[in-house]
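Example protein as discussed:

>
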Amino acid sequence: MSALPPSRFSVLSSPSPDLLSPTNSSTRFSLPSGPAIATATAGTPKPLSRPNIYDRPLNKIRTTEVSASAFAFLFSEIVQYMQKRVSGINDLERRLNTLGYRIGTRVLELMAWRAESASKAPKRDIRFLPVLMSIHTNVWKAVFGKPADAIEKSVQNEDEYMIIDNDPVVTRSISVPRDMSQLSCSSFTAGIVEAVLDGLGFPARVTAHNTPVDDFPLRNTILIKLEKSVLEREELFK
């Protein structure tokens, strides 16, 4: 009987039990420990954080001023945004009026809160002329940083009053094209006035009109047309 041919492949010998030991394998292939991370100590100064705008007291008005250039830039962007989405001048003025009305409701709420916090017995005006004077002075200062220039009463119609602003803040940086010369961006201001009047119980229709003169080319008139119920109530106080 012939002998078996030599094997072409060598058979690996069985590994040593020591090499398969979990303890030994973990020791051989263990990763080096990373460097320790230094933690912040109690004495490390923390970066200063600016106070949240919602944490500021509402009754302090010195820190509520806004940059005029920032306001002009924002308002011009609003006008351009709306101009691309309207069908005409009347539609654009209506949208500006609606935006101003929303702001006017918040202005009235803020002013009422400040008046109540500053006085132990705040009073509410129930006559129209004191309210109109308050809008001419207090509302204009709260929104635009200065009072309006004049108040006029219509000679022909007893239900019409006018607030004159010789240099409106909202139109200082607005350049109106010639084909839109009838546009009055102060419709935004008219919306604020209308919201304040409605909130105080003097419903009216408020519109804005360009009335330029030689000395004041940006002069604007806010026309207030009171509802009949307001006139009837005024008659009762006479």
